[in-house]
Design brief:
Elements: E1 2-7, H1 16-26, E2 32-37, E3 40-43, H2 47-52, E4 60-66, H3 70-82
Antiparallel strand pairs: 1-4, 2-3, 2-4
C-alpha cells in the first residue's frame, strides 16, 4: 500500500466537477484508491463518496492506493491536486 498526504488547494474544494475528475482518473487503474478526511473514507471511484468527505480549501486528505499500479494512480492524483484541478481561482464563484 502506498499513502500520501494531499492538501486541497483549489478555492471550492472537492465539489462535483472535481469529484468526477478524481473518479474518472481512478477508474483507469486496477488499484483500490481511497481518500480519508478524519474518520470519513471515500472510494475514489465514487463521486458520491468523494463529495461526502466535505473537503474544502485547505483540507489535508490522506490518500491510500493498493494494487499493482498504485504508484501510477498516486502520481496522477498528486498532479491533479498540485494543479488545483485546473481551476482558475479568479473564475470560481
Amino acid at each position: 500500500m502506498l499513502s500520501k498526504e494531499l492538501i486541497v488547494q483549489n478555492r471550492s474544494g472537492i465539489h462535483a466537477r472535481v469529484s468526477t475528475m478524481i473518479a474518472q482518473q481512478c477508474k483507469r487503474f486496477a488499484s483500490e484508491v481511497r481518500l480519508r478526511n478524519g474518520s470519513m473514507v471515500a472510494d475514489c471511484r465514487s463521486v458520491i463518496d468523494l463529495l461526502s468527505l466535505g473537503a474544502g480549501n485547505g483540507t489535508t486528505l490522506h490518500l491510500e492506493a493498493t494494487g499493482e499500479d498504485a504508484a501510477e494512480v498516486v502520481d496522477v492524483l498528486t498532479s491533479l491536486f498540485n494543479v488545483r484541478f485546473n481551476e482558475d481561482d479568479e473564475s470560481v464563484c
